[in-house]
């Protein structure tokens, strides 16, 4: 006799939930409709919920608890170090004021508040808003040009000739290759090493070794790294000695295994929110020049990354001397999810320009 299964149908998997139903129910404990009203988000990890009556016991064994405790002991963890001044003055868990004036910089305007404001508009108001947005966009973005540059060395990826069994999506590879092309255009990346004996018309590139005479990229920090395939292409095409992948989430099918197979490369994955990362306190990065890269840094993550990279001072409490601080030599970021941006996270371009000169 087949083991009974939960009656919840999972469309993406085209089957029922594989869990065993609870007693006197057709559903498992996770999908029982009668218990939905009694479930609350886990205070440690809101991505999952728990029954109110089980909350105290769950907190003690939540998978995120051990990770959080381990992270807080790391020298590079500094809660809110890259937050804006407005963030630092806010208390955790404060409820949002529905009467908040969203026009004032520093106030928080959530996506739900924006959506609600749009839904309340009449047709004339909505058309006026669209016209205003187009006008502002046209005046601000008229000087922004597309810069689509693909280095020849990335051809092995563009033609899907990578020997390893790695996930391949053409649109992502094109974007990643263009980021590298623009970095090369401004002189941040050196030319890759070519195999000897090949003509210029049929260039072939050596991915197995980099000549010692060629200036290598000392270190690369990828923010919002995800699976790390932007760094994977960079490592395949240019010389890299150290790689730091900064990502707060856990992913499957990461590029880490492939990167660790490179004998000349050392890899360190930092599972931490960019907002809490003190880059100067990463021991293996102290005193090294590095390149900062990022693809699809959602919303405020771009501003947090800029604060993290341009933070010049070092923590005296942790005994880090200023000469031991890492130094930014180049930065390339592809942004996304602009609707998630908030005034409170915005970093002034004047500050960036000033610190770059210094």
UniProtKB/TrEMBL annotation:
InterPro entries: Methyltransferase_TRM13 (IPR007871), SAM-dependent_MTases_sf (IPR029063), Trm13 (IPR039044), TRM13/UPF0224_CHHC_Znf_dom (IPR022776), Znf_CCCH-type_TRM13 (IPR021721)
Annotated region (Disordered), positions in chain: 20-45, 82-110
Top EC class, one word: transferase
Role, per record: tRNA methylase which 2'-O-methylates cytidine(4) in tRNA(Pro) and tRNA(Gly)(GCC), and adenosine(4) in tRNA(His).
EC number per UniProt: 2.1.1.225
Domain CHHC U11-48K-type, first and last residues per copy: 39-66
Polar residues bias: start-end ranges: 20-33
Compositionally biased region (Acidic residues): 85-100
Entry superkingdom: Eukaryota
Catalyzed reaction equations: cytidine(4) in tRNA(Gly)(GCC) + S-adenosyl-L-methionine = 2'-O-methylcytidine(4) in tRNA(Gly)(GCC) + S-adenosyl-L-homocysteine + H(+); cytidine(4) in tRNA(Pro) + S-adenosyl-L-methionine = 2'-O-methylcytidine(4) in tRNA(Pro) + S-adenosyl-L-homocysteine + H(+); adenosine(4) in tRNA(His) + S-adenosyl-L-methionine = 2'-O-methyladenosine(4) in tRNA(His) + S-adenosyl-L-homocysteine + H(+)
Descriptive protein name: tRNA:m(4)X modification enzyme TRM13
Record flagged with keyword Chloroplast: no
One Gene Ontology biological process: tRNA methylation
Family: Belongs to the methyltransferase TRM13 family.
Keywords: Metal-binding, Methyltransferase, S-adenosyl-L-methionine, Transferase, tRNA processing, Zinc, Zinc-finger
A Pfam family of this chain: zf-U11-48K
MF (Gene Ontology): tRNA 2'-O-methyltransferase activity; zinc ion binding
């Amino acid at each position: 006799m087949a083991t009974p299964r939960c009656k919840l149908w999972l469309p993406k998997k085209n089957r029922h939930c594989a869990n065993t139903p609870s007693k006197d129910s057709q559903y498992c404990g996770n999908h029982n409709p009668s218990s939905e009203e009694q479930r609350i988000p886990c205070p440690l990890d809101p991505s999952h919920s728990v029954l109110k009556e089980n909350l105290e016991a769950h907190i003690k064994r939540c998978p995120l608890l051990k990770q959080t405790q381990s992270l807080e002991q790391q020298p590079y963890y500094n809660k809110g170090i890259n937050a804006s001044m407005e963030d630092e003055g806010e208390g955790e868990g404060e409820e949002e004021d529905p009467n908040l004036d969203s026009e004032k910089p520093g106030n928080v305007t959530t996506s739900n508040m924006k959506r609600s404001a749009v839904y309340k508009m009449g047709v004339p108001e909505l058309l006026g808003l669209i016209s205003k947005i187009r006008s502002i966009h046209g005046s601000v973005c008229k000087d922004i040009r597309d810069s689509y540059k693909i280095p020849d060395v990335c051809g092995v990826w563009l033609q899907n000739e990578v020997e390893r069994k790695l996930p391949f999506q053409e649109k992502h590879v094109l974007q990643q290759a263009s980021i590298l092309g623009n970095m090369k255009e401004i002189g941040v990346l050196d030319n890759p090493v070519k195999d000897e004996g090949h003509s210029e018309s049929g260039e072939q590139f050596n991915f197995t070794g980099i000549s010692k005479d060629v200036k290598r990229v000392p270190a690369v920090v990828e923010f919002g790294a995800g699976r790390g395939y932007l760094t994977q292409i960079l490592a395949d095409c240019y010389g890299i000695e150290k790689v730091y992948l900064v990502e707060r989430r856990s992913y499957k099918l990461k590029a880490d295994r492939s990167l660790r197979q490179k004998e000349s490369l050392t890899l360190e994955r930092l599972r931490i929110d960019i907002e809490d990362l003190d880059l100067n306190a990463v021991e293996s990065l102290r005193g090294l020049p590095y390149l900062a890269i990022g693809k699809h840094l959602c919303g405020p993550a771009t501003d947090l990354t800029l604060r993290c990279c341009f933070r010049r001072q070092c923590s005296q409490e942790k005994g880090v001397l200023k000469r031991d601080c890492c130094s930014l030599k180049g930065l390339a970021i592809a942004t996304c999810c602009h609707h998630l941006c908030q005034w409170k996270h915005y970093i002034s371009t004047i500050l960036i320009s000033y610190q770059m000169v210094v």
